[in-house]
Amino acid sequence: MKRATVSIAENIKVLRKRAGYTQEQFAGQVGIKRSLVGAYEEGRAEPRLQTLMKIAEVLGVSGDALISQDLTDEKAVWQSQEKVRVLSITVGSDDRENIELVPQKAAAGYLNGFSDPEYLAELPRFRLPMLPSNATYRAFEISGDSMLPLVSGSIVIGRYVENMRDIKNGKTYVLITRTEGVVYKRVFNYLDERGVLYLVSDNKVYSAYTIDPIEIEEIWEAVAYISIQLPDAGTSGDLSLEQLTRMVLNLKQDIDTLKNSIPPAE
Q: Whole-structure pTM over 0.70, yes or no?
């Protein structure tokens, strides 16, 4: 029993610090007193089941993992997070799921409210009948020019990705991250080899970079977009074979550079 208590205590302490919470902030998120957080982390007390499940939810891991696994190892954390989390949705009067739209001005708030049904109910909602009905979708208004020719203000419609292992190399995704908020990038999955994802911009002015999976709250695979700016003929239309080849080579070069810059996962 003592061994399990120490494991839970270390897991809570390490994951809480890794998530950037002070004990006071963490206590507020869980809905307990700060003194209880200290007691849990020092192994002087064990959380009740309901509190334990709330702690696991705030930390983004499963309750079973929090109890039984050494989550001080970052690789173990993302493995326990393969199924990202239970998703909140809204439905219409016909019991069909809506597509909630997260505008640029709401992006910061979404990071705190994505799991709150009341917050989601305040977002604009719409339907697209051409999308398959066997998935959950959400729409995000992107900002900046890092993914040109998709311009700032375009709306990317994403399909929810439940398992991190389902990320496909070279596809574009909307990632909800703890430190950067809503990010739209081309993603390369090197979780098994190096414990990270590689994020690449289509606009080569921007450098590729890595992200730790513990930073990710939600993943949405881009399946469509809406834009009020039509592409100009000869500039943003279909890419030629030469342009496609150059893009692939540039992406490979970015990935090789990033792979060589960090050590392999233990």
A: no
Closest CA to 216 of 199, 233, 241: 199
User: In CATH, what number does 99-261 get?
Assistant: 2.10.109.10
Two tokens at 201? 């911009």
Two tokens at 179? Answer: 């430190």
The residue written with tokens 């307990």 in the block is: 32
| Stretch(es) of the chain classified as CATH 2.10.109.10 | 99-261
Of the candidates 223, 226, 180, which has an alpha carbon nearest to the alpha carbon of residue 199?
Answer: 180
CA–CA distance, 65 with 80 (Å, rounded to integer): 6
Q: Which helix (H) or strand (E) holds 81?
A: none
pLDDT tens series, the chain, 266 aa: 334 444 789 889 988 887 778 999 999 999 999 999 999 999 899 899 899 989 988 887 778 778 877 777 655 555 555 444 557 788 888 888 999 999 998 888 898 888 788 888 899 999 998 899 889 999 999 999 999 888 999 999 999 998 887 899 999 999 999 888 899 999 999 887 887 899 999 998 898 999 988 788 899 999 999 988 776 655 444 555 565 566 666 666 666 676 666 666 55
Q: Tokens 């970015």 map to which residue?
A: 254
CATH 1.10.260.40 residue spans of the chain: 2-78
> Architecture of domain 2-78 in CATH?
Orthogonal Bundle (1.10)
